[in-house]
Write a structure and sequence with these properties.
The chain has 162 residues and is α+β, with helices and mostly antiparallel strands. It is built from five helices and seven strands.
């Protein structure tokens, strides 16, 4: 994984492919048309994420340097003060191989090493498979709410890292 400080055309293309390989997520989140993910929108969104204070965007690559995942981490949420996983997405062709578990574990280890006691994230309620994934990793529901951007129902999850 590495932090994206600048974006090459190849990186943007790889992230477009990553999003397009997850049509269920695209439809549920309402941010991208899975049949036509636009590179300029992806680039703009990634640049905005990186400019957010305390946010990191990381790309996960396999041994051949192919992009297989994307993570967005927020070191301190402005509303609750907790660190958050803003996004963890695995390429659709690489799912169900343990990569998501590996990435989640790496993020937990990273925040634990930084002295954090806990971590939060939210899951779109329409994504039952995502909720099942996170709860299988020991995450617990804290509350329910809606996304800021599109008002989609979400479940906020919490994990103690100590």
């Amino acid at each position: 994984m590495r932090c994206l400080l600048s974006f090459s055309a190849q990186e943007i293309s790889a992230v477009v492919d990553l999003y397009a390989s997850n049509p269920e997520y695209c439809r549920a989140a309402g941010e991208y048309d899975p049949d036509g993910v636009r590179p300029e929108q992806v680039e703009s969104d990634l640049r905005e994420e990186v400019r957010t204070d305390g946010c990191e965007v990381l790309i996960a690559r396999d041994e051949q340097r192919t992009v297989v995942g994307l993570l967005s981490l927020l070191h301190q949420h402005p509303k609750d003060g907790h660190p958050w996983i803003g996004m963890l997405i695995v390429h659709g062709g690489m799912q169900r191989r343990g990569l998501g578990r590996q990435l989640a574990g790496s993020v937990e280890d990273r925040f634990r090493a930084a002295g954090e006691d806990d971590l939060r994230l939210c899951v779109l309620d329409s994504m039952a498979s995502s909720l099942a994934f996170w709860t299988a990793l020991g995450w617990q529901e804290v509350r329910r709410g809606v996304t800021n951007e599109h008002g989609r129902p979400v479940t906020v999850l919490h994990k103690t890292l100590t």
